[in-house]
Design a protein that fits this description.
about 190 residues, mainly alpha, Arc Repressor Mutant, subunit A, 2 domains, 7 helices, about 50% helix, about 5% strand, elongated
């Protein structure tokens, strides 16, 4: 019987707690950690105060191609590439650090996070399996998430050429309707 290092087990538990606090699904925890499923479920209940959500993980690369998710995914993945390369982090640590930076950026911009930790992890796995690639925008030069093997020659990102309804959400409409309109100037 192989003995497991107590120190390594404590590090895995600490990482599991960090992942759970960031919103990781059970499938992510099972794939990245060597803790048993029962132990992860007990840990999830202790940290979140509820059972982990059930159901399958999202499986569609198309979600990352729509306007807002593409911008958010591209921001996250560029940060991840830096962290895993220059930061010399192992993949799961690079995901956690990149996701924390992504959340900080979104908070500073007073925006909502479009990307959950589980989606960010899934994005990294899609790149590793060759389903997605980074493509350079021909206008701004930024690198954006795109389907693998798509032509790159004339690619224009969603920031340089946003769709006609970009930014028009229910929340922005509610904010506009709550803002009082200025009274027209008085004429004599």
């Amino acid at each position: 019987m192989a003995t497991k290092s107590v120190v390594l087990e404590v590090k895995e538990i600490a990482l599991a707690i960090e992942l759970i606090e960031l919103g990781a699904r059970l499938q992510l925890l099972e794939a990245e950690l060597s803790l048993s499923r029962d132990r992860l479920i007990r840990l999830y209940k202790e940290v979140k105060g509820e059972s982990p959500p059930k159901g399958m993980l999202p499986f569609s690369t198309d979600w990352f191609m729509t306007w807002q998710p593409n911008v958010h995914s591209s921001l996250f993945y560029n940060t991840y590439l830096f962290m895993s390369g220059q930061g010399r982090c192992d993949p799961i640590r690079a995901i956690v650090k990149s996701y924390r930076l992504y959340l900080e950026h979104v908070r500073i911009q007073e925006d909502e996070a479009a990307l959950s930790l589980t989606r960010a992890w899934t994005l990294v796995r899609y790149f590793a399996s060759g389903l997605l690639q980074m493509t350079r925008c021909t206008r701004c030069g930024g690198r954006f998430v795109a389907h693998a093997h798509e032509p790159q020659r004339y690619y224009v990102c969603g920031l340089c050429q946003p769709p006609s309804r970009a930014g028009r959400t229910r929340r922005s409409a509610a904010a506009l309707s709550a803002t009082p309109l200025a009274a027209p100037p008085l004429t004599q």
